[in-house]
Amino acid sequence: MIDIAVAPMIQWRLRHVMADRQITNRALAELVGMHETSISNMKRRDDMPRIDGVLLNGLCNALKCTPHDLIFYSSDEGKGDE
To answer: Model's pTM, two decimal places?
Structure first.
């Protein structure tokens, strides 16, 4: 039987990085040139949003992090083989 309710393999960690850096939606929005609501929407996601390299680069520069900090990969190898 295959478990359909598995967690996504690629997880978006913007919320965690922002909390670690103690930066608000408004401050990050100003740094990357986005609307505060757009940052809020991205922050609420657990799955990887569709963003381009320019935005990812801007987020990394503003948060002083790497893409590795924002994206967590967990293999689903072996799951659903039961």
So the answer is: 0.78
CB 7 within 8 A of CB 79: no
Asked if the model's pLDDT at residue 48 lies above 90, the reply is no
The rounded radius of gyration (Å) of the Cα atoms in the chain is 15
Q: 11: buried, middle or exposed (CB in 10 Å: 19+, 13-18, 0-12)?
A: middle
CATH topology of domain 10-73: 434 Repressor (Amino-terminal Domain) (1.10.260)
β-bridge mates for residue 73, sequence order: 10
Question: Which residue has 């929005």 as its token pair?
Answer: 29
